[in-house]
Amino acid sequence: MFNELPSNFDFPAMEKETLQFWEDHRVYDQSLEARKGGKPFVFFEGPPTANGLPHPGHCLTRAMKDLFPRYKTMTGHYCLRKGGWDTHGLPVEVEVCKELGIHSKEDIEAYGVEPFNRKCLESVFRYTKEWETLTRRLGFWVNLEEAYVTYHKSYIESVWWSLKRLFDAGMLYQGHKIVWWWAQGGTALSSGEVGQGYREVDDPSVFVRFPIVMDGRAKSLFSPGPQDQGDSKINASFLVWTTTPWTLSSNTFAAVHNDFDYAIVHDEETGERLIFAAALVEQIAKKAKKKSWKIEKTVKGADLVGLSYKPPFDYYRKRPARDLVTHAEPGIPLGDFRAPLNSDAAMPYVLWRVLHADFVTLDSGTGLVHEAPAFGEVDYDLLQQERKRFKNPDSVPLLCAVAPNGKFTDDAPPYKGRWVKECDKDIVRELKEKKAYSATVDIPVLLHQEQYRHDYPFCWRADQDPLIQYPRKSWFIRTTQFKDDMLANNEHINWLPDHIKGGRFGKFLESNVDWSLSRERYWGTPLPIWVCESCGQMEAVDSYDALVAKPGVAGLEVWENAKKNEPSLSDHLKVHKPYIDAITYACHKCDTHAASPIQSRAVGGRSSRGGSSARSHRLLVRLRRHALRPMGLSACEQGNVRKPVPGRLHLGSPRPDPRLVLFADSD
Questions:
Q1: How far is CA 161 from CA 42, 156, 157, 533, in A?
Q2: How many other CB atoms sit within 10 Å of the CB of residue 237?
Q3: Are 581 and 618 spatial neighbours (Cβ–Cβ below 8 Å)?
Q4: For residue 245, is it left (φ>0), alpha (ψ between -120 and 50) or beta?
Q5: pLDDT of 42-98, one tens digit each?
Q6: What is the 3-state secondary structure (H, E, C) of 65-125?
Q7: Would you give the DSSP letter of residue 318?
């Protein structure tokens, strides 16, 4: 029955012989025909990106994928195996950027989104033959002749159908998220991508004074104070540590731990008082070469919560509060702005106060954590907790002196237009020269500086570009709504090995947060949410036909003109940028006299029923392996995109913010 094995077995030759046997006898087709009428088992491949060559890692994943449909076929299931091609996303954009010799989102927009996306389409099937050959050589039984393609209109509409149902069920919503941000490329990276780019770097480690505002409660900490000077002349600061000096311009709070002991340290040489963790006094004294420090007393962190201080930079503190808090009274500087709490407690200063945070540790630093919520996930969570204490949560603004391109904005005038991490040295120099107290007391803001070696993430596709944490608007699915159900279901799964249940997978479920599915890029599936820029009404559509059937639809000529000028243009592009961005339709909620606070900022467009004009922003999202997760897109392009029209629904967001995208993952 079996052929005798040769003494010198040629495995590659055997593989080719077996493959040829399968092909000659239609073994795969026969396996399907034999199971017709059986219980179906559906297999859609998580598709590869065909604009990159396959590598050995793909062999392993494809071999593992093949196990499941083969097993199900042997158990009698009718298992159609649908292959696919991932034609969207950052990998495609990166390859096209390399070809064009460009790097940033600004470069892409200067080149033009329309021609850029056409280049992406030309790129996506470059290595199809190599992928097909690899797939067959591996013996991976999957239907490639009828593969699904992620840029095809039918695929995009299947995503729209799913998202509309989530939106209508109240499970798709928009909010902020702190992400690891590739500023030069203008996109967020997933945790997996971030993990690929860590390497050891030396960053400046600075110990900075935050001068305490000497109100009655603060003065009581130092009594009996230096009697020869009087309490009003006490020079005292919180001592704060950071390895990101560039974030100090956006400082919002300082955090302590309620249960830690904090020392009030008297510098007998200068008369200054410093407050920081008692457990770290000896260590920091050695760093700063201070032999004149003496601990006067210790207090609990809880005794410091609520105290106010002056931040290292006054960029925001001196600005009118109304610039950042729309309901603030005119003429009040942000540093003097107070707002009512939900409780009956006296109104506190909104910003530059000491808060409690569980994440404060004594492993390093000073036991006081510099809080710039725009640049840290736990810091942003702390901001959100603090907002809940106020009657109007919008009373607490998010301070961010950095633009999405990673350069300082007008909010930090001395460093405007410069890449943040390049400014660290100049910022440290300024802290060294800047006085912490009055002009007659020669004590600088900077206490001590050193280098700190640690692991830091760089973009894995551009290894000279460091990532920064940055706040982005994102669309979320409320996965936390099903957290308890998922944990309960996990208990009924027979995990092998069994420690996975309460270990890796169990911990993953326990730490579940709402799923951010948006990324800010150009080549991807549009998130199908149309927003009225007059009244804020949002609607989701589930197909292109449903969209063009809307009342008063306009903007279709942008695609029609492009197709007329270039008849060979793929019809699938009509659901992509920039053509989809141009489509608007009449809002059923606005009346003919609907108005908007930004009526004077109308940006043009054809007249319509009601409302005022405002700039429109489109949102794209990305799909990975049959599941939604982040990838990216950009701010509003000019030119081919129709400007928003009052009283009409536009693809986009109700507030100025970059768009987002939905792609399908590579292997």
A1: 19, 9, 6, 24
A2: 22
A3: yes
A4: alpha
A5: 998 888 888 888 988 899 999 999 999 999 999 999 998 999 999 998 889 988 999
A6: HHHHHHHHHHCCCECCEEEEEECCCHHHHHHHHHHHCCCCHHHHHHHCHHHHHHHHHHHCC
A7: T
Question: What are the CA-CA distances from residue 369 to residues 95, 98, 245, 604 (Å)?
Answer: 41, 41, 13, 47
Tokens 């603060």 sit at which residue?
Answer: 218
**Helix or strand run (H / E) with residue 529:** strand 529-532
* Residues 410-431: tens digit of each pLDDT: 999 999 999 999 999 999 999 9
What would the two tokens of residue 87 be? 């034609």
Give the bridge partners for 208, in sequence order.
Answer: 240, 446
Buried b (16+ CB within 10 A) or exposed e, 601-639: ebeebeebbbbbbbbbbbbbbbbbeeebbbbbbbbbbee
In 598-641, alpha helices (H): none
Q: In angstroms, rounded to a whole number, what is the distance separating the alpha carbons of residues 25 and 238?
A: 80
pLDDT of 223 reads: 67
pLDDT 10s digits, 339-395: 999 987 788 899 999 999 999 999 989 999 999 999 999 999 999 999 999 999 999
Query: Cis peptide leading into 224, omega within 30 of 0?
Result: yes
Site of tokens 């292959």: 83
Over the range 161-175, which residues count as b (16 or more CB within 10 Å of their CB) and which as e?
ebbbebbeeebbebe
User: In 246-285, which ranges are E strands?
Assistant: 253-256, 261-267, 273-277
